[in-house]
Amino acid sequence: MNMHVDERRPAPMSGHERSRHESSSQEAGQPVTRNPHAGHELSIRIRDLSLWYGESQALNKLNIDIFQKNVTALIGPSGCGKSTFLRCLNRMNDLIPGVRLEGLVEMDGRDVNAAKMDEVALRKRVGMVFQKPNPFPKSIFENVAYAPRMHDLVSRKAEQDELVEHALREAGLWNEVKDKLHQPGTSLSGGQQQRLCIARAIAVQPDVILMDEPTSALDPISTATIEDLMDKLKKQFTIITVTHNMQQAARVADYTAFFHLGEIIEYNDTRTMFSNPHTKKAEDYITGRYG
Ligand SMILES: Nc1ncnc2c1ncn2[C@@H]1O[C@H](COP(=O)(O)OP(=O)(O)OP(=O)(O)O)[C@@H](O)[C@H]1O
User: Fold this and answer.
1) Which one of 64, 165, 171, 270 is CB 3.0 to 4.6 Å from 199, fit for a cystine?
2) Where exactly are the transmembrane stretches of this chain (predicted)?
């Protein structure tokens, strides 16, 4: 279910929910959150999300609305919970023993953690790109064709060829690889491998693409190529990216969430976050006073 948002609050909430949200936000001092872009549709709604690794709490009552077809950047010092939060969105934390989670992660109106949620289907809808490019030890072609075949999105060879070409074009890689589709994915440069991983993610037509520091292992030119790609891909996909690079967040993100010690301290449109942060902690981090 898609919802329109008003100018002051990222997503409509019931009266009960609102008071719960506001009081928990005040208790935890979080988050300062606004949506000046009226009309953006809600993609993911997070309410009072907490997570523990065994006895150790990594996320504390997070509340955030993520908007469709935008880039949202997650920033904050090392160990503040950005990757943990990202993994809540496709239930990858389920794979870690001893993880306990409370609160709501809702995608298009459906509870991601509901028992009846099909995890394979969820991970098809929510693709992921990691810090270090990780192509399968297979050909360039197979890297892209494998998941669509597994999900029965293609059956005939011609359909498969078409889909692979389309995904590689979307990822800005087609011209560089069209004559060597049957060479190993690992034979490509780091930046090309990362674009191959993006092609692999978009080949199953997800709604959301999670990116965990997607350019931190890349040179400046490959980084700029991926940033341009993110700008293009957000027309079709909701992108959530973790970055330690403040300039990158300022360049690519429509919204930015600042994490600190497992809490979202501030969530704002990126322009406001970087020109007029509403919290001292975010300002200090952005201006490099700590990090
Ligand atoms: N698999 C795990 N088991 C136990 N603790 C973990 C695990 N993964 C992360 N943590 C802990 O959870 C907290 C948040 O870690 P997380 O990796 O989410 O932070 P981050 O903001 O992404 O950090 P970085 O920017 O360094 O990648 C840290 O204290 C970390 O040590």
Assistant:
1) 171
2) none
pLDDT digits (tens, 9 = 90+) for 132-188: 999 999 999 999 999 999 998 998 999 999 999 999 999 999 999 999 999 999 999
Atom 3 (ligand 1) nearest CA: 53
Mutation choice for ligand 1 from 53, 89, 210, CB with most ligand atoms inside 8 A: 53
- Between helix 190-202 and helix 220-233 the angle, nearest 10°, is 20
Tokens of 248: 């990158």
Contact 82 CB / ligand 1 (< 6 Å): yes
Domains of the chain in start order, with CATH, are 15-286 (3.40.50.300)
- The 10s digit of each residue's pLDDT in 60-113 is 999 999 999 999 999 999 999 999 999 999 999 998 999 999 999 999 899 999
Say whether the ipTM exceeds 0.90.
Answer: yes
Rounded-to-integer distance, Cα 216 and Cα 204, Å: 25
Note whether 203 and 127 are within 8 A (CB). no
Which token pair is 154? 């293609």
No. of helices (H) and no. of strands (E), the chain = 11, 11
Burial class (CB in 10 A: 0-12, 13-18, 19+), 118: exposed
- Asked if 251 and 234 touch (Cβ cutoff 8 Å), the reply is no
Find, among 191, 243, 199, 196, the residue nearest to 218 by Cα: 191
Which residue's CA is the closest to the ligand 1 atom numbered 29?
A: 79
Query: Taking Cα atoms as reference points, which of 78, 85, 75 lies closest to residue 245?
Result: 75
Phi, psi of 100 (to 5 degrees): -130, 140
81 close to ligand 1 (CB < 6 Angstrom):
yes
- Report CA(64)–ligand 1 centroid distance (Å): 19
